[in-house]
Amino acid sequence: MNLGKLIQVKSTYLIFSMLFILGSILLISQYSQAEIHLWSNHHHYPWLDAIMPWLTYLGDGWIYLILAIYSVLLLERRAFMSVLFTALLTLIFSSSLKAYFNEDRPMKYFADRGIELNEVAGVKPRYQHSFPSGHTTTAFAAWGILAFWWRKKHWQFLAFLVAVSIGYSRIYLNMHFLRDVGAGASLGTFVVLLSLYLAHRLKGDWFKEKWFK
Q: 55: how many CB neighbours lie within 10 A of its CB?
């Protein structure tokens, strides 16, 4: 299947990702990042305090190792290459943008203004390199690649729900503002499409075969 047909078939993940990105842009255009974050921070609950620190781990870089193993065991070699491209591009783009912008994270932003935030016990606060959210970039890239492997639309939607939940966890844990998460979602989605494009540019029957026959 060529890349155009693949994207058309797997459009469910892309549609919901774009809706989330557009929704984030709309909120950011109507309210300040401080207003949005304070509203979110006001809604803290014990059960979410317990879940969010674990949920956010699904946006760590180790997820690419799981995807690589999955692709080697069950999919064609081209799929493994798409994981490799995704991991490399995520690292390059995310780290470069963080270093360039070096924005304050919510904990420092509000501390400088004398405002205390609700915190989750046991979560180590971070203060710099807020934009964009690296975990959200990884989430939308890694779970996006996974969505393109799944045929069922409800599984693609599940991948989106995981990705967007990881993004929300970064806001809930005071690691990022909504703008950082929206930018991460945009960057992650772009990385998915670019990685798939690069993987489908690889010619030869070797890439179409599975590692284990």
A: 18
DSSP state of 210: B
Sort 32 into a burial class: Cβ within 10 Å, 0-12 / 13-18 / 19+.
Answer: exposed
Element (H, E) at 82: helix 77-101
> Would you give the distance in Å from CA 66 to the centre of its chain?
16
State pTM to two decimals: 0.92
Backbone angles phi, psi at 202, to 5 degrees: -75, 120
How many other CB atoms sit within 10 Å of the CB of residue 7?
17
Tokens of 205: 């029957």
What CATH number should be reported for the domain holding residue 190?
A: 1.20.144
Instruction: Quick: pLDDT tens for 128-168.
Output: 999 999 999 999 999 999 988 887 888 889 999 999 999 99
Range(s) of the domain holding residue 204: 3-25+52-208
